[in-house]
Amino acid sequence: MSILEVSHVSKTFGSKNVLQDVNLTFEDNKIYGLLGRNGAGKSTLLNIMTNRIFADTGQVKIDSEDISDNDAKLGLIFLMSEVNLYPNGNTLNQIIADTELIYGNFDHQLAQRLAEKFDLDLTSKFGKLSTGYNSIFKLILALSVPVKFVLLDEPVLGLDANHREMFYSELIQSYSDHPRAFIISTHLIEEVANLISDVIVLDEGRIMLNSPVEDVLAKTHSVVGPQKDVMAYTKGLNVIGHDNMGTIRVNYVYGDLDDRQLPDTVQLSNFDLQKLFIFLTNQFEGSRHDENQ
Ligand SMILES: Nc1ncnc2c1ncn2[C@@H]1O[C@H](COP(=O)(O)OP(=O)(O)OP(=O)(O)O)[C@@H](O)[C@H]1O
């Protein structure tokens, strides 16, 4: 198994601290979701992880070897992003041939099958592709290169709902055929929630959450019932958000519940990753500072 390690990575642009002492470990048999609000530093991190830009401090290593200026290790990582690295005048077939020169062992059969499935003509010129097909082509490359770490930065940009579904199912198929690491940076949390095994939340350049999805969801509790009972039950717990529906109150708790007695009037259930993300990254008005607690 290969391990990709990000150690103490920091990056500033001008006076802005975009990444602050980021430490992460990726195994090559998991699908990671990299979540964060706009400007959180996700693309910067992915670019540093592929040596496209340099960290101010810190290191990125694969199996304990620094990746910078290390072609053997860089050949194990592929980043798909909205940045267009390919000449507009080249055909898709030419770009595939060039990609194979860099990464070797390109899965032509898969690329051909996917091109047919998505109705993409590989003799087209790259510069003539629509936004959606530009993404589709780059996704086909990402699934067909023989790397251990596939980094996808906003992979479904411009894809319609049908094409997004098709892509997610192909990703799962490809992963089960050849387990490797996928690191998916996206704002479409609901769409990837069932796909990812681990979730990483980046907030203002710092890692706020880094855990298996299963563990994270097990710590989410929505506590529903009459206002005063809910407030009493959740006193002292980590309430990260709330809703009021008339006299009914929902408090959203993140963390382990202790053995306190649940009143008959109050019900507990879990809530989803998207809601958790919204609460944790403070997109919910008043979520953090609940004056009633
Ligand atoms: N080359 C650059 N020069 C100056 N500032 C930059 C540069 N690249 C990124 N930034 C800034 O760094 C911050 C993080 O940007 P980044 O693109 O990494 O965030 P992100 O999480 O990918 O955001 P989004 O979800 O909006 O794509 C932003 O404030 C951005 O303006």
From TrEMBL:
Stored InterPro entries: AAA+_ATPase, ABC_transporter-like_ATP-bd, P-loop_NTPase
Cited Pfam families: ABC_tran (PF00005)
CDD domains: ABC_DR_subfamily_A (cd03230)
Domain annotation ABC transporter: ranges: 4-229
Gene Ontology MF terms: ATP binding
Keyword annotations from UniProtKB, A to Z: ATP-binding, Nucleotide-binding
UniProt protein name: ATP-binding cassette domain-containing protein
